[in-house]
Amino acid sequence: MSAARLLKLLAGVALIAVAVYLAASLLVPAESRRAVAVGVGAGAAWQALVLAVTLTALPHNRLAAFGGGMIARFLLVAAAALVVVPALGLPMGPALLPMVTVLFATTLIEPVLFAAGAGDTRVR
């Protein structure tokens, strides 16, 4: 995987994270904005890490990379809901909903971004 392609994917994740943070911040009371920031930050950071790892480890097997990413995203949501959010004393909704929104939106654009610049002309 080229560095330029990975940077495009990471830029897409960052753009989505900023949009989700801005939208969610408008919908919650001021005291819940920290939870929104933690949720969006965790979702974006995790997605960036998962993209980098799966695309580096599985550059020619997009289906396996996508499947591994889905498992990793599920594990993040489960760990956040069961351990992290209660341990930090954050409100569950304002922390988890923006995180899941970031993960969902980046999952939707993943195939588009994978295909963009792939440059694979081999017939399968």
Structure description:
There is one protein chain. The protein has 124 residues and is mainly alpha-helical. The protein has 4 helices and no strands. The chain has one domain. The chain has helices at 3-27, 33-57, 62-88, 92-115. Helix 1 runs antiparallel to helix 2. The chain is globular and about 45 Å long.
Ends apart, CA distance between termini: 18 Å
Q: What sort of overall outline do the alpha carbons produce when their principal axes are compared?
A: globular
Total of domains: 1
The count of β-strands is 0
Tally of individual helices: 4
- Mean pLDDT over all positions: 89
Determine Rg (CA atoms, Å): 16 Å
Q: Which regions contain 5 or more consecutive residues with pLDDT less than 50?
A: none
Helix amount, in percent?
A: over 70%
Oligomer: single chain
**Percent of residues in β-strands:** under 5%
The helix/strand class is: mainly alpha
Following the backbone from N to C, one meets helices and strands in this order, namely HHHH
Largest sheet, if any? none
Question: Would you summarize the structure shown here?
Answer:
This protein is mainly α.
Helix-strand layout with pairing:
Elements: H1 3-27, H2 33-57, H3 62-88, H4 92-115
Keywords:
single chain, mainly alpha, 0% strand
